[in-house]
Amino acid sequence: MSKGQTYGDSSLSRRRRERATKSNRRSGILLASLVALAVAGAAWYWTQVDEPDRDKEAYKEETSRLFAVMKSKSNRLSKNSSEEVLNAFEIEIRELAERDGVKTERVDPLIENVEALKRIKSERRQEYEAMGEAIKAFPLDSSPEKIKAFDGQISGTVSRLERSQGAKLHSDWLERRKVVASELKTQYVGELMVRSDPSKADVYLDGKLLSKTPFKASGVRTGRREVVLRKMGYRDKSISVSIEDSGGNDLGTVVLDPIVGGARIIVSGGKSRDKIEIEIEEADESVSVGGLEVVQGYQHFEGREHQLDALRIGNYVLIVSVNGRIANETSFVVSEGEIQQVPVEI
Q1: In this structure, is residue 35 part of a structural domain?
Q2: Where is average pLDDT lowest: 24-38, 49-63, 88-102, 301-315?
Q3: Which of 183, 184, 205, 206 has its CA nearest to residue 193?
Q4: Rounded mean pLDDT of 11-22?
Q5: CA 336 – CA 221 distance, rounded (Å)
Q6: Using an 8 Å Cβ cutoff, are 244 and 190 in contact?
Q7: Does the global pTM surpass 0.70?
Q8: How far apart are CA 297 and CA 90, in angstroms?
């Protein structure tokens, strides 16, 4: 082999190696570009597609979890929950309402619940303050009846308030009650006596029913008192009396004025020569005299027509007899200032 041929082969081989090296370098660059492109694509998908989807799902799950927590808290709230607890819950539930994807129809009932409880708290506070002022202003000269009535008001109010408010009111009232009771012991007492015509009238002292006439009571607080006598069919009689502590206070016999109406009785039928007898009596009341029952308002007449202009109001029984035998029995009502028509057929 000649020297020139050897040199030519060597030169060809070097060029081939150079081309191969260049080709390999280009392939490497291309592969590296493809890898970089794939990595960039994966990174884009992760950041633009997959990661936001995962974030949205996590956000949704967190919202559901928060709603479940809020609903559980709402169920545990009550009228006795403190204002601090209610305010904190309201802040939390309103923050939840601002999250994306939260439906107002699910949150609104929770907000309405806490607002209703806050209104109850406000009403309780107002009632507590009003009753506190009433305790301070309770008159020192109040009667035992007024003290007892206020006891009932306090009990009713305490039952509606929170435990701490109720305990405070009860304590304040006990202190005020002691002062009022001590003042009551220093007041003088006297006696009161009253009778009525007719008897068995209800006796009211300062609006309170005590008994029936004839009435006598000791231990009546001195001072100006109001006595009312009340009986069915009669007008109320009001008497203002000054009770003295020296001896009895006798009002004597008080005559009650009847409330009257009238009735016109007409009997028809039978024969003209029949003997007609009419009896009427009050149906609502009877009294005992000497062990015998006496019917109130009893009247007896003969004849077919009678008009009675001064009957006490109330229910009456009418009995019609023909020739000594009862032929008809009926009832009628007498009203104030009216003439009641009572037709009877025999």
Answers
A1: no
A2: 49-63
A3: 205
A4: 64
A5: 38
A6: yes
A7: no
A8: 74
Q: Cβ atoms within 10 A of the Cβ of 330, count?
A: 13
| pLDDT tens sequence across 221-243 | 777 889 999 998 899 999 998 88
Q: What SS3 class is residue 278?
A: strand
Q: In 3D, which of 336, 295, 339, 302 has the Cα closest to residue 317? A: 295
Domain boundary among the residues 201, 230, 255 is at 255
Owning domain of residue 285? 260-345
Cα separation, 245 vs 186, in Å, equals: 12
The torsion angles phi and psi of 173, rounded to 5 degrees, stand at -70, -40
The label of the residue with tokens 């009596």 reads 281
For residue 313, the domain's CATH number is: 2.60.40.1120
pLDDT digits (tens, 9 = 90+) for 237-266: 999 988 876 666 888 999 999 888 999 999
Is residue 125 in a domain? Answer: yes
User: Closest Cα partner for 311 from 286, 278, 282?
Assistant: 282
